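SUBJECT: A protein chain and its fold
Encoding: whole-number codes for local backbone shapes
RECORD BEGINS BELOW THIS LINE
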Amino acid sequence: MEPTPQKSLDRIISQRAVQMSASLQCKTWVLGFFCGICIAYLFLVAFNPYKAAEFGVGFTNSLAAVSTNSSTFSLEVDKNAGCDFSSKDIGNSAKFEGSNQPSDVNKAALLYSAWTAVLDDSKDSYGEFFNRGPNRTSLPRPPYVEDCKMNVEINKILDMRGENGSLPRWSLWKGKLGLELFRVAFTSEEQKLQAAFQNASPPWVLGSDEDNFPLTRLVQRHLWIHQHPQNCNKPNLRFLVADWWRLPGFGIGAQLAGMAGLLAIAINENRILVTGYYNRADHGGCQGSSHAHWSCYFFPEAAQECRDRANELMKTKEAWDDHIITVKDNYTSKEIWGGRIPRVWGEPWNYLQPTTDVDGNLLRHHRKMDRRWWRAQALRYLMRFQSEYTCRLLNVARHSAFGLEAAEMVLRTIRSWPKESVDSSLSDIENFVWSNHKPWIPRPILSIHVRMGDKACEMKVVEFENYMHLAERIRRKFPNLNSIWLSTEMQEVIDKTILYPHWKFYYTNVTRQIGNMSMAAYEASLGRETSTNYPLVNFLMATDADFFIGALGSTWCFLIDGMRNTAGKVMAGYLSVNRDRFW
């Protein structure tokens, strides 16, 4: 006779209790956990049942709940203590029966812990765990996860030419529906119809043309065609091969700005840009062929055939003598950082909409309009598709930041869980039509990047209070705004969030600077993997946010603004606490 769900759960808890009893560290954690439950009850229920809505989330990979002050809170679980459940423990039998039902707060914590176990234990894509057929798990689906394997599979199709050298099927329906259509053999009439859509726009540009920088769709299409020729072995093709900068003073923003300059040179000289060694991907998280390469984080900048061809030519003396191959050292710093912007599309920067606010006034014109437009286009192309590794990083970030909040939201619609299992099978409309929807995050949300520290030698730095003053200006216009994604390297900024209890703050849980130190020294203290992953997560979250506040004098903010302006967010505007130092 099969055990009842209640007995199965009792067995799981009993086994865990035995493991926990041997761990002093775990005993301490359990005691602290139940104390935390009592405190949470007092604050969330006894004093004010709506107080939880004011809390923010500082996230880490092992987060279970959140903050040590009035605006953020965090509870970290040591996974080595043997206290965490695994996905094997959860299974399909994690159901409760009888009259002793957990409270809504405990149910949300239980669901969050179950999602965490799936995230930690799953060797494949987090999203794929929930897409293995009907009733694969009794867990409700977390609304903030993406199926990274499926995304990469779809994007690979959208990033490669057809068998006859035709452009990718950018006119396909989106998401999994387009993937299924791609697998179907076309009739001759359907092939003619596909040929009629050869002028389709790249799918990585979102929003209307008016919501992006001028000519964004056309430029992105041309950049992709330039970097993915029909035949990479043509004798007249030329290449610019360049490693990424690796000097200690070069942050990620400087590296990206420099590569945008090299892409401009490649376009002007009709060369294909091929990147080489990327020091920030030289760590244990980047595996296989993507190790120490840009492709660890985003799709390669050129067709693989062209990359292979360029590497072959690098070994031949004739290619160097005939300037078929050039490298970074063939160009001066002025040519890379301040060289001529490609004008094959005219001068579209002359038509930029004035949507940047400085000191309460719109910035209508400055001396670097062309560079602002071009860097946005270059960065949008280089980051057009995320790798599976980057997708998983964002799944972890959203889970840790928004997971508990999402669990509470999901359980408001599934009141019977965990007493009754949830049917995890998907209808066709869920599986195909809705597959392309973005993962859930609390909206509207404002991203703020506070740059201080050693940046004072390059620009005017301002205090956190100035940023929050601009945040209040936005909220006066949009009173439903109360969430902030905060990125900063300074601990003093995080400490000041307690002064703003009516805002909900989310931020990465990493060691931050106390006092002044150089960015190079700070990154070295974090290690290469952490010092690369968490800024890129912040960067992409800022790109996706509804509003953005930063400092134009910061290259990082400059690039975030560019990514937003090629992602359909021109009319969201940009509030800056200062002017760019070069304008």
Observations:
- The CA atoms of residues 124 and 149 lie 8 Å apart.
- The two ends are 77 Å apart (CA to CA).
- Residues 2-31, 36-99 have pLDDT under 50 and may be disordered.
